[in-house]
Amino acid sequence: MRNLHTRTTRTRVVGALAAGLLCAAGLAAPAAAAPTAPAPAEGLALTPPMGFNNWNSTHCRAEFDESMVKGIADIFVDKGLKDAGYEYVNLDDCWALPSRDANGKLVPDPVRFPNGIKAVADYVHSKGLKFGIYTSAGTKTCNTAGFPGSLGHEYSDAQQFADWGVDYLKYDNCNNQGVDAKLRYTTMRDALLATGRPIVHSICEWGENKPWEWAGDVGQLWRTTGDISDNWGSMLSILKQNLPLAPHAGPGRWNDPDMLEVGNGGMTDTEYRSHFSMWAIMAAPLLIGSDLRSATEETFEILGNREVIAVDQDPLGKQGTVISSQGGRWVVAKEMRDGSRAVALFNESGTAQRITTNADAVGLPAADAYSLRDLWQHRSHNTAGTISATVPAHGTVLLRVAADPRSVQHPPAVELGLDGSPLVEAGKMAGLTSTVTDLGRTTAKRVSVSLTGPEGWSVRATSPTTSPALSTGRSLRTKWAVTAPQGTPPGPYGLTLRASYRSPSGVRVDSALPLTATVVVAPPSGTSGLGDLPWLSATNGWGPVERNTSNGESDAGDGNPITIGGVVYGTGLGVHADSTVEYYGGGACETVTAQVGVDDEEGADGTVAFEIWADGTRAASTGALTNAMPAQALTADVTGAQVVRLVVTDGGDGVTSDHGDWAEARLTC
Predict the structure, then answer these.
(1) Helix, strand or coil for residue 116?
(2) Catalytic residue check, 637
(3) Which element (helix H / strand E) includes 58?
(4) Is residue 424 within 8 Å of residue 397, measured between CB atoms?
(5) Which among 65, 167, 172, 190 is annotated as catalytic?
(6) What is the pLDDT of residue 17?
(7) pLDDT tens across 23-80, in order?
(8) Can 227 be counted among the known catalytic residues?
(9) How many helical (H) and strand (E) elements, i.e. helices and strands, does the chain have?
């Protein structure tokens, strides 16, 4: 599948017609096939598969060819990715010709793969790696060129894959002719087993039939969502759909939230670290989706972080579970085989937030002290039990925590934080307060703190910046006066909070917290269309938020006139769940009004809910709205709010074609 938003219409076949199709499709096993209901191949994918798939970076473009695939295998070895655990080099769609040969066999594209598929597989195997391929559990694959699918050809295709040396099959769901999903995927399972070759069966039916409930004896992993896109909103939406499925995961049976987008350019490195961290704590397959031939060193650093990979690959096979998730502050904990816990402090919001939990909440036994290992900073500390950090916008702090009396040999964990609004009007002083807090069982000594901003900014401490010692739970609080020069253009600017301290043994520890201050412009007086006002931030589940048009598809500017229930509106915002758009109110605004609903561009699809927030208070909301409903008037009192937030969530049936409109959205100040 390529996207739930643009999927090919599939014929729904029922009753006697469906029965006839099953027979015609050849879904019955041949006489020499494996038993009717065999168990899946034992010993496969006992930890989540790791490797590469080309689709996210190349789609069906000409650059997807034999040279690329071999180049990826070379890079796996040369860059240490193989040694880090990456194993599979997988082809996606477009490797074959549109038609089978006279014997019904699949034919590799002679331009892309002039030496055939077996030669590529042999090359990959020569590097000590494994090779994967793609097809669909339908009459054709998902690409519009119409490459042949395996429905009705399961045993022949499986044997052809085995003869080529295939180790992994991604089995998609397009053009399935309405045939029962469990039947289609079970038939391919049986066909793969009949070959006698161990082949990982990756079920890619997009979560439409809840495969986590039935596919444990059919494949080794199953997609839980539609396709990921290289943007924050898409990644966040998929993350939220996959997290609740933790009870269904385990060795040889993994929830698959789709491939990695790390390095493809649509997110920041901070967001990519969050993406990688959260996939690891969910015990998700780690399939690289970027073209490593042009990847940056930062991309290799993220993908090659062995401490994070160890969380994903822990042999106990537990998927992390949500401990808390209030206000965009997520705590997710994963039980590890050695009794420790991996803990992700994940900030989905657009501003830095303090996220906190404790050893008891994440399932650790009572102890005097705990070791706390930061898996991105590669530093170890001790904590008395508090697990806490100020996490940058869209960032993740990934920790490994264990009850360990010897942890007091490490320096105490110290948390840095900054209180006060990070929104600054140029030429006006903003007051901020930094905190340096000892979370450790031992004392932090000779503590000092500094705050720096961009060149030309005034950043001045107005209270003490040092403390001779901080015991467990004590804080150094320092007030700061921050002023951006008059005329500073609106937008985000970096601040850095730094602290230095010494452990009881005299070891010096330096830490830094990157933060963002946003220069804002006071909103205009009167009533303004939100489609024309600058926003502080905007995230979207599919493509960008569009101004004064519908969401459209994934490209910027591809929206249509906003239309709800046949009524066309000239202004507003076009979004896709999950979406958040933030505006600066500066305490000067009073009301937000809009006509809201599901845009007509998705036909009968789409179910969404709308919310308006005034700072941390939900000021107005709708229930679930469907495409069959007319626009609903929504009004919110946002008096005194510094930030006004427009939120669109899934209406409860999964994020599928959830195109929402804020028609005639207006802010009165």
Answers:
(1) helix
(2) no
(3) helix 55-58
(4) no
(5) 172
(6) 31
(7) 444 454 554 444 344 455 678 999 999 999 999 999 999 999 999 999 999 999 999 9
(8) yes
(9) 11, 39
Side chain identity, residue 572 = G
pLDDT tens by residue, 100-151: 999 999 999 999 999 999 999 999 999 999 999 999 999 999 999 989 999 9
Q: What is the pLDDT of residue 606?
A: 87
Residue-wise pLDDT tens digits, 422-473: 899 999 999 999 999 999 999 999 999 999 999 999 999 999 999 999 999 9
Tell the residue number behind the tokens 């519908």, with chain if given: 550
Q: Find out whether 498 and 510 touch, Cβ atoms under 8 Å.
A: yes
538 contact partners, CB below 8 Å, separation of at least 6: 544, 545, 579, 580, 581, 582
Nearest to 606 by CA among 628, 591, 584, 623: 628
Considering only CA atoms, which of 634, 568, 638 is closest in space to residue 601? 568
The answer to whether the beta carbons of residues 78 and 120 sit under 8 Å apart is: no
Enter the tokens of residue 564.
């709800």
Catalytic pick from 65, 157, 167, 227? 227
- Name beta bridge partners: 370: 383, 403
How far, rounded to the nearest angstrom, does the alpha carbon of residue 556 sit from its chain's CA centroid? 21
pTM, 2 dp: 0.88
Alpha helices in 199-245 (DSSP H): 232-242
pLDDT classification of 655: cutoffs 50, 70, 90: low
Strands 444-452 and 329-335, sheet pairing: unpaired
Closest to 332 measured CA to CA, from 262, 240, 251: 240
Q: What angle do CA 70, 75, 80 make, to 5 degrees?
A: 140
Question: CA-to-CA distance for 336 and 248, rounded, in angstroms?
Answer: 17
As given in the structure block, the two tokens for residue 418 are 């900054």
- Taken in order 437, 438, 443, 448, the sign of the CA dihedral is negative
Chain centroid, CA 645 distance in Å:
22
Cβ proximity of 209 and 181 under 8 Å = yes
